[in-house]
Amino acid sequence: MFIAHEHELQTLERLYASGSFRMVVLYGRRRVGKTALSGEFVKGKDTLYSIAIQQSAKLNPKTSPRIALSFFGMPRFDAHVQ
């Protein structure tokens, strides 16, 4: 049973139940449970879930399209991108 961040989880569930499109950004200090909270929230839901990490400017633009293609079951088109 997930007991950390119960209030935040309830808020996310309420927003999700509203049925309108939302983008939610979780932010905070390191190691306070952001990843665990988001992982618990998306369980059993059709969602596009991505964790942003700090990386080089060269790699960042390539990450989001890969996540989206994987989510929609589409083939990757970046095999030849250097």
Can you describe what's shown?
There is one protein chain. The protein is an all-alpha fold and 82 residues long. The chain folds into 2 domains: 1-46, no CATH class; 50-82, no CATH class. It is 40% helix and 0% strand. The chain contains 3 helices and no strands. The protein has helices at residues 6-17, 34-42, 60-71. Helix 1 (6-17) crosses helix 2. The protein starts with 5 loop residues before the first helix and ends in an 11-residue tail after the last helix. The mean pLDDT is 80.
- Overall geometry: globular
Secondary-structure class: mainly alpha
Average of the residue pLDDT scores: 80
Oligomer: single chain
Unreliable spans are none
Distance linking N and C termini: 44 Å
Question: From N to C, what is the helix and strand string?
Answer: HHH
Number of E-state strands = 0
Number of helices: 3
Rg over CA atoms, rounded to whole Å, is 15 Å
Percent of residues in helical segments? 40-55%
Largest sheet: none
Number of domains: 2
**Beta-strand percent range:** under 5%
InterPro entries: P-loop_NTPase
Protein name: ATPase
